[in-house]
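Sanity check

After download, print the first record. It should look like this:
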Amino acid sequence: MTTARLSDAVATRVRDHRFALQCIGVFLAVRAVGLAILAWLAAVHHTTLTWSLTLWDGEWMLGIARYGYAGVPATFADANGVHTDDTAYAFFPGYPMLVRAVAFLPGMDETAAAMTINVVAGAAAAVAIGRLGVLCATRVRPAVRLPAPDAPRAGLLLVVLFAATPMSVVLNMAYTEALFCAVAAWALVGVLDHRWILAGCCALGAGLVRPTGIAVIATVMLAALVARRDGPRAWIAAALAPVGYLSYLAVVWARTGSPTGWFRIQTEGWNTTVDFGRATWSFLADTFGYAGDFASVATALVIVTVPFLLLWSAIDRVPWPILLFGVGVVASILLSDGLMLSRIRLLLPAFVILIPIALRLAHRPRGEVIPVSVALTLFSGWFGAHMLTVFGYAI
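Expected structure tokens:
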């Protein structure tokens, strides 16, 4: 390598590292504001920040981490108030088992481990999401495309939008969202950069973290098939991608004696089934047709907005693997039954549908972008805190 090429490579590496630090800084700043607002509202309602961050599914995650699947106490119940020997197996093992492992470190317990993992995973997700913003900014239709030197701005704004979604508070809770978004985003980076081993390993991890991992798996496998001329690495990625997901389904099969054991636990315990959108349509009709509470109206507004953001992404011609992943996540949430008021949280991994907004903001002057970013950060912080301290039901 010539001196000039070596110098260029070093400069590129420095720019990449600087951009990664900027993504992490932006993410942590937005989430710090959200946590400060949550701490304030928690004090107003005579609770604590820690209690708020370990509610609902967080109790299950920490319980599985502490006791293992077989030892979860009978006081842990499903959505119908029932506890069986198999109830805990509704939750995929990637996050609680990682919490369990980190909790063995000196000075750690399960709660501290969960919070630490989420900070690290959130930062990792921010770097990957920023990278996706940069890649998409130079590959969309010409009308919204940014020149390469300006593309990092779109990446940073995509990180802001991700960290300031209405229910981004779950990125700091003992929930799977931070970890899942990290592995999903890096899988997509691997696909767009043709780093197939990265893509395959991350898809494998996504399949161990939550059932929505099927969207990551499908995207990586199809992209690897399309890029099969890349050689053995693409084929390895396609082979690796479904291993985590299928392995856990096999574990639950062995536990229950049924190949559909996990799906049965989900259906019986949490009323989660594929109904092709009937429950979502019914929820929207009830909410918009009758007087609804704030949480229901907010959830309904998000639900009806999401398909338009997907369409906008298609019009902007974002890279097809990005669009496919977004469609997969959205379809898995909106075409199934279950707790409707959790939809805003469950849609958080569909962060790619925010790319068109990030691209438009990147074209605007800083004097407009900063106030918008601050407003979104404050609203997100208040909304998440309200849902955890005022709203009385699971999210």
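If your output differs, re-run the checksum step. Summary of this record's structure: The two ends are 55 Å apart (CA to CA).
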